[in-house]
Specification:
homodimer; alpha/beta; Aspartate Aminotransferase, domain 1; seven-stranded mixed sheet; four-stranded antiparallel sheet
């Protein structure tokens, strides 16, 4: 398969972009859906932010007029650059805080909107069991405050669960474990028909899949900066609120960076009129600096092209797996149009297999209890990597490497 | 005064530490209480985190066993290093999120503890008007949820306001505008006697003033990473919860990083047993990297020595101001034992004066509506800087520079 892989790489219109990322020697990195690779432009951007903007500019860098840093606007600026990747307008997106914290704000905002407009008090937040844990936990946080009720229903029953109590349908577009995609259009429509608002978690979509938030008439969204956007470990997340809701937007994390006039130092909170209201504390400038580089690079490559390549990579990987005689239990949808940029396989020894692959330089992910998850970040992976990874996987099985004791012992953190 | 200044610098046991910071040429930086200077060790630490830990280590750097990065523990590790600066035990402090978000968690935690133990339902959060705005705004956030009631009383009336409705007394140790200090010991005792818990905001204290949280029996505290701790713009903040409260700790920002077993990917939230419960989303590794360098450097210099020098600097500055024949309206306490590491002056033209000083390379701060705030970060300022700054200030008045039109126009953000 290696010859075919090389032909595919030679014909790949994105092949030149690999050189814009730092991919360590000897590593086939199938975990860009957990932490994206480092863009080669990032170290210089970070050094500039640290040494020039902070070191020389000091407090003056908060303003746009001094040294051009404009830190105050940075959350809005990076948000505006993420917007076209997800079908949003620039003023609908802000880069701030974490996915978890942004979920808390937006679930709260949905509850407040429902309380304002509804005749009955809708308090149910509907999601699916097995959604990414933090999404479910953040509902529980509001539940512990007595403000929300968590309801989890398997995805095939979600439509039926959209009753008069549901304030918000909150789902992750591409499932973190299986990669299975929701039909955003159909579910958003169904939720709206039932009087519910919709929040899409785009953590496993943004930068790898085309998303059209305004096309499907979404209300809210959140997404992750450190996966396909290559913003670095623990990068700031983003949040989206549809323009039509800006007038009614209220959320309880009312920090000074979300104030209409933070430097008036008033005793009373007055929310900024737009998406800036979602900011809470002081913007994390160093994290935003790295995120901006990643977003710009992904935007330059283009989400449509990334999606095409992502599908081609995973299809070719499956072809290589088959050609190696491996018969694996695929839990991701077989049709690449129905899944995110990943393939997940179920195996009782998934943990040890993952460790054996890592020892060979093939870095994938184990997801408890029995899932080997391989991500195909299309910006920097080659078809040759697919052929090599499949060969390594076949050898792990042929040589029963996963049975070695050093791969069996699970660490607390994986 | 310049000769006396040089004598004082020559005798200053901390004078050598200035070389460990990047202080831009031509700048006298009297705003380290807003954004601390860059430690010279930070750029290399950031480059290492970006290029080696992220670039080479990739996802493996989350674990301590791979490349030694140990990102998962980083919030706890940096928190433990902050602990001795504020009289806390290592396991009582965590570096995470922002001051604002941490306030929300800890106010919520206080309300939950009061609901659990109290006979009546205490909902009042007592603070003072003119406290740093975000502190007051975060109370309003919980008020908007119907969970708290904000009560603001001038500091001389706080003790009298500690009635049976007060759940939490929440104050900033060193006032951001005037530098005035609260007596932490007396107020904590008074609050406890009245059945209230106490939260101290140490944003303008940590790294400049000795604080003994356990000595005064404090319940909660928050503090800022980007002022005296020199953690960089928008650095992660920290939070403290006294060990005796860990068993009862409950807060509503229940993200996956605060889960007891985040990588079990369970549907139900189970709080981590200790201070780690205050983590919510994924830790901001790049921000924590810079913060760690600043904390280590400040800890190496030592808070007691920093405080002594800070007092000496501000005393000497006032002496220089007087010797220049200036008669300014000092709003900070005259006794340096009663104020933080700053001096604030009231003047109708404070904004223009501040701008005229900045044009001369003397960077202070304007605080609406009429305060010129000069901070004396003791780690990198010299007595010579005090003499020079006072001379510049005198010249601004002698030459009426603040009347120049270019200094009068207020920008939206100052």
């Amino acid at each position: 398969m290696i010859e075919k892989a090389r032909e595919l790489d030679a014909a790949d219109p994105l092949s030149a972009f690999r050189a814009r990322f730092h991919v360590p020697d000897g590593v086939i990195y199938l975990d860009g859906n957990s932490l994206g690779c480092l863009p080669k432009a990032t170290p210089a951007a970070m050094a500039h932010a640290v040494e020039r903007e902070w070191g020389d500019g000091l407090i003056r860098s908060w303003n746009a007029s001094e040294l051009g840093a404009g830190w105050f606007e940075m959350g809005s600026r990076v948000g505006a650059r993420i917007a076209p990747l997800i079908g949003a307008q620039p003023q609908e997106v802000i880069a701030t805080d974490t996915v978890s914290t942004n979920l808390f704000k937006l679930i709260s905002a949905a509850l407040a909107m429902q309380a304002q407009t509804g005749t009955t008090r809708r308090k149910v937040i509907l999601s699916e069991p097995g959604n990414f844990p933090t999404d479910i936990y953040m509902i529980q946080g509001l539940e512990s405050q007595g403000l929300a009720t968590r309801r989890l229903a398997p995805r095939e029953h979600l439509m039926a669960e959209l009753d008069d109590d549901v304030a918000l349908l909150m789902l992750t577009h591409a499932h973190y474990k299986t990669g299975e995609l929701f039909d955003m259009d159909a579910l958003t429509k169904a939720a709206h028909d039932a009087g519910a608002l919709v929040l899409w978690d785009l953590s496993h979509s943004t930068g790898a899949l085309p998303v059209d938030l305004n096309g499907v008439n979404a209300d809210f969204a959140v997404g992750c900066g450190y996966k396909y956007l290559c913003g670095g470990p623990g990068a700031p997340a983003f949040a989206f609120v549809a323009q039509r809701h800006h007038g009614d937007l209220k959320q309880p994390l009312t920090g000074w960076f979300g104030h209409a006039r933070p430097f008036a130092f008033l005793d009373d909170y007055e929310a900024a009129p737009g998406i800036e209201q979602l900011q809470c504390g002081t913007s994390p400038i160093l994290g935003l600096t790295a995120l901006e580089v990643g977003v710009d690079l992904i935007a330059e490559i283009g989400v449509e092209r990334l999606h095409q390549k992502s599908r081609a990579l995973s299809e070719f990987f499956l072809e290589c797996v088959l050609s190696n005689g491996l018969d694996l239990d695929l839990v991701s949808p077989r049709d690449s149009s129905e899944r995110g940029s990943q393939l997940s396989f179920r195996h009782d020894n998934a943990y040890a297999i993952c460790q054996a692959l890592i020892a060979r330089g093939v870095i994938g992910d184990f997801r408890d209890p029995d899932i080997l998850r391989l991500g195909f970040a299309p910006a920097y992976l080659r078809f040759e990597d697919m052929a090599d990874a499949a060969r390594h996987l076949a050898e792990v099985f042929e040589r029963s490497e996963w049975q070695r004791p050093e791969f069996a012992a699970r660490s607390a953190v994986t």
